[in-house]
Structures are given as structure tokens and as C-alpha cells.
Amino acid sequence: MAIIGSLIKGLIDLRDRIVTEPDPEEAQLEVLKDLLTKARDTAFGKYYGFQGILEDADIKKAFAARVPYFDYNKINEQWWQRMHEGEENVTWPGKPPYFALSSGTTGKSSKRIPVTEDMVEAIRQSGIKQIGALSNFDLPGDFFEKEIMMLGSSTDLLEAGDHKEGEISGISASRIPFWFRSYYKPGEEIAQIENWDERVQKIAENAKNWDIGALTGIPSWMELMMKEVIKYHKVSNIHEIWPNLQVYTSGGVAFEPYEKSFNALLAHPITVIDTYLASEGFLAYQSRPETNAMKLVLDNGIYFEFVPFKAEYVNEDGSISDDAPVIPLSEVKEEEDYILLISTVSGAWRYLIGDTIKFTDVERHEIRITGRTKFFLNVVGSQLSVNKMNDAVKELEERYDIEIPEFTLAAVRIDGEFYHSWYLGTNGKVDDEELAQSLDEILKQANKNYSVARSKALKGVKVKTIPSDLFYEWNAANKKKGGQVKMEKVMNEEKFAQWEDFIKKQLASG
């Protein structure tokens, strides 16, 4: 009997029974008050009159009225850049000990997002909440004795003057408490290897020495790692190497597009738990098995606001217009898309994180990530969001019994006419024209705006199937492999021309 595991499971069950859920509205108000109080003497707090906001009868309304929206470029140019010049107390007291590097999905150059000690502690506390929620998943006692493979970016952080820099997964892993290190794989030595291929090679070489019970990381890179382990050991699935693998904690992107190809690497299904850990903070986690939605963390250093996701509020670069209305938590509705704004203990204020979400359960405050503002394809009025694209690709997978873990597209002009040009990453053997017709049909049925656009200015759909590995090679050439890197789903014409040139060269050389 797994005595230690049973004890840990018992403690988690006990904690879940003892800890009570805070009132959501009160919790968010207290978070906002705390943020404003701590930052009122910073340069940002003085400029926007945080003390006056705190004295207002309606703090939430006053905050929304006085402080504008910020995307990364705006807050970095106006405020965060001053930290890089050595200034203290800019948007949060003191100086941040870390900056999270995030190239995300939008370009080669990295964003540098401040990570304060308060944020490190908030991430730790949210992690404890998520562990507590494991009591809802009916996992056996021996699961809690198994090791956890955390496949993030390198933990060998860059020393940059008075702070360190790295991706948020590397920063978090570098702060793992001593008592957890025996459970954590691939271990500190391998985790510090910067080169992705070298790190995965070391993981493959050592895989049989570990008893992995859980995986955590971005789906695309987790798949690649498992494929390399399977290939190295000449087995048919990952359970032949890690027979006790029972849980996968996904994060960063929707898991659904990867579900079919991911499951193909397993001997049997495992429990998939979604999390929402971004460079800006730990926003949400899946707290129960009956859903794949995630519960917002409402009482831990992040204040949330929501802007209706409508074409008239979204600028071409993915930012939002200054007059876009904001909806408080108390007024959100289920199954409507919202642009997410956050204010945090790292000194992000009314910050456009770039994600769109929808509430699947307002009472439980559970959400799903539905896409990115920059991936909203609205050329000629098609109004395609990423979740609509994901749903259409998933239906293609089912209709043709193929796997399509990756895709990208752009609106392109051919002889003066607009087309949606799709690249689908798949090893399936289906005619491209047949896929194009089916994709067009699916999108017409699912999206009224798309159907109208197709009857007017949008001439048609073109599809080209390519090996999925080419998407990862593109990331390697333009950003890097592994870590927090995600593939952009929608490109502008200039970027798409570079993509097509890259793919032509890769196919010609292959």
C-alpha cells in the first residue's frame, strides 16, 4: 500500500473540506483595494491618483474611469521601460527581481514582463489551490508518490544587472521548494540546458530511470518530447516507459486541437487538467473533472475586467479602442466572448493580456480560453475567432479520421480577390481541395458572419497540408523551440509571405 501517497491524499482531501470559497465580488474588491493601496506611492499610482480612487464611494467605477487600457507596447514604452533604466517604484514598489521573457505568438523579439516577489508568491499560492483541487479528481493514493515531468523553458536564468530574465516556466521551476525537488523531473541539471533538442535528448536517455505520474507543459512541445522518448526506446507508446502516468496538466493554449494526436501516444486515456499560467500570472485552473473549464483565481493578486469581444472594439494590431466598454465580473454572461484585462501584483494595470475568454459557468466563475485578439480574422467581415477555427479543424479530424495538431492561415489577395489560405499540419492523406471544400462548409454552418462574407467579398478557401514538424521548425527559426512558445494561428499578409517562402524551402530541401 502506498502509505505516504495515501497520507498526502488525505491531507489534500482534508484541506479541501476546511478551506471555504470567498465571495467572488468581495474577493475582487479586496484584491483591487490591496493593489491600489500597495501601489499608491509609485510613480504610476501618483500619476493616476490611486489615493483618490481608494477614497471614492465606488472604487471599481473610479478605477475604470481614471486608468486607461494598456497593452504591452503602451505600458512598456510609458512605464516599464523606466525600470530597465534603473528607476524604482515605477508601477509597483521597489524593483522586480525577475523579468519574464515572452515572445508568445506575435514575433521574434521578446517582451520583458516584470515578475515581483509578490507575484512569485501569488503563483505559489495558486499552485497550492490547484493541488487542493486534486481531491475532486478521484486519483489513487499511489499517484501522490510519483514523479512529475515539468517541461518548460530553461531554468538557467540570464543575469541582467540587478535582476534575472527567463520565461515564466523557467522562473517558476527555479523557485521550486526543496521538499518538492525529489519529485521534480527532469531535475535541475537537465532543466538548465538551454538548447531544446539537447534537453529532450537527455530526457529520453534518462526516461526509464523515472517513475512519472504526471506531465505538465504546453501540448505541442509535450507531444514532441514524448515522441522522442518513444523513438529512443523503440516502443509504441509512452506508457511502456512510464506505466504509472495518470495526469497531464496542460496550459497556455486550448488542449482540444492536440487531443487526438496526444492520445495517439498513450496506451490508455489519462486525466487532463487545464491551467492558465501566463507570463503575467496564474489566472485560473480546472478544479473539477466534470468540465474542461477553468476556475478564475479571484482572491490572489489579480483583478479582472472584461471587454466584449466585438469587431468594433478591436484594432488591427490586436489592441482595443479607448472607448471599448468594460464589464465587471458581476455582469458577465455565459457563452459570450470577452477580451481579458488584468491588474496585478507585478504592476500591470488594466493590462490587455491578449487572450479572449468565455464563461461556461458564471456561478462557478469558470472560463475557457477562446483565442487571441491578434488572431481575430476579420478581413472582409468574416469575424473568425480562434475557437471557431479550432472547432472547424476538430470536425475535419473527425470527418476524415486524421490528426491536425497545428494550423495557420491568412487572408490573401489573389488576382484582386480575397481568399482564406490555410496550412494544416497533418500526416493524413486527404486531397487538399476536398479539405478546403469541407472546411468552407463547416465554417459557413457554424458562423453567420463568415457565411455572409463568403457570399460577398470572400472568394473562397485554399488548403495546403504539410507535416506538423514544419510548424515547430518555423518556431525554431523565428523564435525558439520549447518553453512557452506557441504557434501563431493567424498571420498578416507580410508574415504569411515569409511563412510560405520558409515552407517552400523546407519542402524543397526535404
UniProtKB/TrEMBL annotation:
Occurrences of domain GH3 C-terminal (ranges): 390-494
Highest taxon of the lineage: Bacteria
Molecular function, one GO term: acid-amino acid ligase activity
InterPro entries: GH3, GH3_C, GH3_M
TM regions (residue ranges): none
Gene Ontology CC: one annotated term: cytoplasm
Alphabetized Pfam families for the sequence: GH3, GH3_C, GH3_M
Annotated GH3 middle domain residues: 297-362
Protein name according to UniProt: GH3 auxin-responsive promoter family protein
Organism: Antarcticibacterium flavum
